[in-house]
Amino acid sequence: MKNSIKNFRKELIVSGVLVLLLVLILNPFHFWMPDMMHMVVLAVTVAVFGIFASFILRERMGDERDYIHRMFSGRVAFLSGATVLILGIIIEAISDNINPWLVSTLVVMVLGKVFALLYSEQNQ
């Protein structure tokens, strides 16, 4: 139990750092980001995302409740990301300038979900 809480704290810290770096890349207040600093922040963001991904790949379920919590959080994350992408596609379609990255990201998310489901069904 203690190890699970310790891992959860690490995952929470890495997630927070990743979100902070992504906000800094957006530079919402236009108060910084010379070219060299921008590249450093991008490199650090990629590294932190790699750490975040390693937490996701290493997570193990303890019992049925833990399995249900992980499953629920995965569904909420997927639906939140897909909702933001759909809103972005709608807003850009209204302005008649759809960014192909939004559409391709949504397609990859949906295909990833489908392939993961197929893989899970075959390996049960």
Draw up the topology in text.
Layout: H1 2-26, H2 35-58, H3 64-94, H4 100-122
Helix pairs in contact: 1-2, 3-4
Structural write-up:
With 124 residues, the protein is an all-alpha fold. Helices cover 83% and strands 0% of the residues. The chain has helices at 2-26, 35-58, 64-94, 100-122. Helix 1 (2-26) packs antiparallel against helix 2 and helix 3 (64-94) runs antiparallel to helix 4. The radius of gyration is 18 Å and the shape is globular. The two termini are 27 Å apart.
What percentage of the residues does DSSP assign to strands (E)?
A: under 5%
Unreliable stretches covering 5 or more consecutive residues: none
Distance between the termini: 27 Å
Largest sheet: none
Count of strand segments: 0
Rg over CA atoms = 18 Å
Mean pLDDT reading: 82
Helix and strand element order: HHHH
**Helical segment tally?**
4
Oligomerization state: single chain
* Class of secondary structure makeup: mainly alpha
Q: What general form does the structure show?
A: globular
Which percent range fits the helix content? over 70%
Short summary of the structure?
The chain is mainly α. The protein has four helices and no strands. Helix 1 (2-26) packs antiparallel against helix 2 (35-58).
Distinctive features:
single chain; 124 residues; mainly alpha; 4 helices; globular
